[in-house]
Design goal:
There is one protein chain. This protein has about 270 residues and is mainly alpha-helical. It has two domains: about 110 residues, Tetratricopeptide repeat domain (Serine Threonine Protein Phosphatase 5, Tetratricopeptide repeat), CATH 1.25.40; about 90 residues. Helix content is about 65%, strand content about 5%. Strands 1-2 form a two-stranded antiparallel sheet. The longest helix has about 35 residues. The two termini are about 40 Å apart.
Length: about 270
């Protein structure tokens, strides 16, 4: 009885934190919900299972609703690291959020395939353990084998760091590359829009048009846009190069972890 009471007291605050976050989330107070969820995750760094999945789901949707797609992407990536087959319910979540989540899922598909295989192996090991214990056999030793893929070291957006278990660094690299790529694309589109707009053309007879067919002000503007374009591209590839080097330095082809069951339970996890 005392053990059950201690367990209930240990679990209750966690459920209360999530309940408060869920209440704020369902009420539409997304900023408060995101703050409460981050506090919960900070206080429970080892959270896993349904609680962690629900926390990252609400955090990702909240950040997206608040307009922070980078933080939303990071939350959804962590959710997929816990359940690579997770899908948002299109009947409960608005289409643009589902579309964004599905895009994140497609972008990270190279990392999800090995996670699915690890989950299958973990479920199989858990099933065998339950069968052994049901027959009254002594707990078995289980070795979790994680085969890491070398080619992921060359994939951008922190793929190598996520594979090596460094989620914080992977998220930072992915966020930086997304920002630089978006800046570069925006600069290219803006430059082309100005250059191809016939209404912005001028002739030498007009004032402020010393070098037709563009006005002096437009040429200056396009020159500044070019600087942004080349600098953002350079920073993107610099971060990519850093990510590749760092991934190689910490790459381990095969990781074996012995899992010891306790009290007829087995917790299996896998790293993104």
């Amino acid at each position: 009885m005392s053990a059950l009471l201690a367990l209930a007291l240990a679990v209750a605050p966690q459920n209360q934190d999530l309940k408060r976050a869920r209440d704020r989330f369902e009420f539409g107070a997304y900023a408060d919900a995101a703050e409460t969820i981050r506090a919960f995750l900070a206080g429970h760094p080892d959270a896993s299972g349904d609680d962690a999945i629900e926390a990252y789901r609400m955090l990702g949707i909240s950040e997206f609703k608040l307009g922070d797609s980078s933080e939303a992407r990071a939350a959804f990536v962590k959710l997929l690291s816990l359940d690579p087959d997770y899908a948002l319910d299109a009947f409960l979540v608005e289409p643009r959020v589902v579309e964004f989540f599905d895009t994140v899922k497609r972008e990270n598909e190279p990392m999800l395939a090995p996670l699915r295989e690890q989950k299958r192996l973990a479920d199989e090991a858990k099933r065998r353990l339950a069968e052994e214990q049901a027959r009254g056999a002594a707990p078995v030793r289980i070795i979790r084998v994680e085969e890491r893929h070398y080619l992921l070291n060359w994939v951008p957006f922190g793929a190598g760091q996520f594979q090596n278990g460094d989620k914080a660094k992977g998220t930072a690299i992915a966020s930086a590359q997304v920002v630089f790529a978006a800046t570069n694309l925006t600069a290219i589109l803006l430059h082309n829009q100005i250059a191809q707009d016939p209404k912005r053309r001028c002739s030498a007879s007009q004032s402020g048009c010393s070098d037709p067919p563009y006005t002096d002000s437009d040429r200056t503007l396009m020159s500044h846009i070019d600087v942004v374009k080349y600098v953002s591209a350079g920073l993107f590839w610099a971060v990519y190069a850093y990510g590749v080097v760092d991934a190689h330095l910490h790459y381990v082809p095969r990781v074996e972890t012995e899992i010891t069951p306790r009290q007829s339970t087995l917790k299996l996890s896998w790293e993104f």
